[in-house]
Specification:
The chain is an all-beta fold and about 120 residues long. The protein contains no helices and eleven strands.
Length: about 120
């Protein structure tokens, strides 16, 4: 059974940093493109960042580019999201997700971790 477990969320002041982690089990992690998505209150879930399975290329939403960094450690079956210069608008539940070889769409999801940025 595939499990994705996020951690590292919390309350942080604007301008601060957080690092989210997502530990995966029940899948061959190295064959999955991994992504981070977020959902703010009253809004739809949106893409934030992804890292490919094959060559580790990264892609970011314009709203987080230059502030967030996604990375993966295949030895630990874990994907990270380093978030710097956090803004009020970054407040959301953050989800990690897995996409087999980048071809099937994101069909495995974690339960989410809350990030709240205060002024």
């Amino acid at each position: 059974q595939v499990q994705l477990v996020e951690s590292g969320g919390g309350l942080v002041q604007a301008g601060g940093s957080l690092r989210l982690s997502c530990a995966a089990s029940g899948l061959t992690f190295s064959r999955y493109t991994m992504g981070w998505f977020r959902q703010a209150p009253g809004k739809e879930r949106e893409f934030a960042a992804e890292v490919t399975w094959s060559d580790g290329r990264t892609r970011y939403a314009d709203s987080v580019k230059g502030r967030f960094t996604i990375s993966r450690d295949n030895a630990k079956n874990t994907v990270y999201l380093q978030m710097n210069s956090l803004q009020l608008e970054d407040t959301a539940v953050y989800y990690c997700a897995a996409n087999y070889q980048g071809t099937t769409g994101y069909n495995f999801w974690g339960q989410g971790t809350q990030v709240t940025v205060s002024s």
